Amino acid sequence: MLLILNSRYGHRFSVIYFSIHSLFQIKFQANLPFHSGPIIDTINEKFFSKPRCLGRKYKKLFKGPDSHPNEFELPDTMVALVAVYVTRLHGWSSGRYVDAGGYTQARLETTYRGLLKFITDMRNDDEEQAHRVLHKLYLAVG
Length: 142
Description:
Elements lengths: L1 E3 L11 E5 L3 E4 L9 H12 L5 H4 L18 H18 L11 H21 L1 H15 L1
Antiparallel strand pairs: 1-2, 2-3
Helix pairs in contact: 1-3, 3-4, 4-5
């Protein structure tokens, strides 16, 4: 479940919780959504850890907006994909019992599309803030 609360950035976020039931929660800072240990570690491991990983291989293609051409940022789709994995599937690796009934393709896709919309809305509300968020995430994993 994605829960978004009010904030100083309009109505988008102040504290964001991604959770699987009440067993697994990740809390983010208001100004740095997606900056949590599990998300950063997973992006790093799956996309940047080895020379042939896609993130490392195509790193120079992750350009930021025209206003910051030399500041790279992670692609929205990569961030959303990993956030879905961490929030929906990471519970399995925690060793805790998580009911498999909630892990349907439709639910995962809905979560993914919701996260992409969240990132798009963040860009539409404040492009500079969105760039800072995704650029700092790029620096954290790169």
